[in-house]
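Quick one: structure tokens for this chain, please?
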Amino acid sequence: MPIFMFLSPAGLSARRSRLAAAATGVCTCLALAGCASWDAPVQEQTQQLADTLASTGDPHEARGVSLVENVSEVEPVGTTAQRLLPVELTDADGYDVTVTDTSRILALDLYGTYTKTLRGIGLAENLVGRTVSSAEPSLADLPVVTENGHSINVEAVLNLRPSLVIVDHSVGPAEAIDQIRAAGVTTVVMEPQRSMASMAEDIENLAAVVGEPDAGKALAERSQRELDEALSAIREAAPEVPLRMSFLYARGTGGVFYLLGEEDGTRDLITALGGTDVNSEHGIGAASPASPEALAEVNPELFVMMKGGLTSTGDIDGLLQRPGVAQTTAGQHRRVLALPDGDSLAFGPQTGELLLRAAHALYGEAQ
């Protein structure tokens, strides 16, 4: 019996609209009555990080770069595969889609969230390619089908003969997605909120698309439990006066230099770390040029950056050469928190671990 779903219609914000779903005749993962429930224990690594987090100094006086090297790969939840196919749905672009085959999946988004989620529900072996953001070691040998970070190479996609492409408009362009669909490839356009509040729902929605609602429910419950534990531990370690933090996005030494704000989820991330998001406080929603004037206005104590972005600028010394950076409080203290590119704003199954590793770097290792 097919599962029927409805994914929110085209025209709504790719970050803010909610995915809705309905099931007919069978139990899906989307919090419907009759679904089984599992004891979803916190992953061992995350538990250790929560138990050992403690403040060791005044983070307002710390200097230098705090680096989170990596985040562990998602441990599959270990539920029995269901393969409840076909799944019939209307995707976020308004197309009616029937998913019948998940043997060769391409899951494409700017943040790498989809591949992490699919690994968590036990479908890592079904992935045949990736975006550059899906940097998990287990996927290193898979071909990359995006260029310049978020541009889909249609030819590379079609050469992999995927049975299913799962994508959203964080990558594109839209014409590339249309070409893949027109070539006869089953294509599902998602529209996740990508926030801490929606993390569990986003996991369950993706799992429902591939016919694995039970695994999705188990992964969502475990991920939420880990997030709750992380937030509790960080509240105990964070300073009473929050650090003023600014998410700075950079690529190279040229023109890609932006302050990210609430529309990119930075307030969620920074607030969870016990900080104040000065970009959002100054009205920055969408990415905004990090001009000397803008940097002086937000004047953070700490820049939050993607590790690859910091490296591309020439590390901290190169960053300080950018106009306006050295004049900020963060610049004067050479203060940056560098996070793994594919995890920093993913809001996926490893969110709890990311937060704990970042909190250890900020508070547990304060100099």
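Residues 1 and 25 are 8 Å apart (CA to CA).
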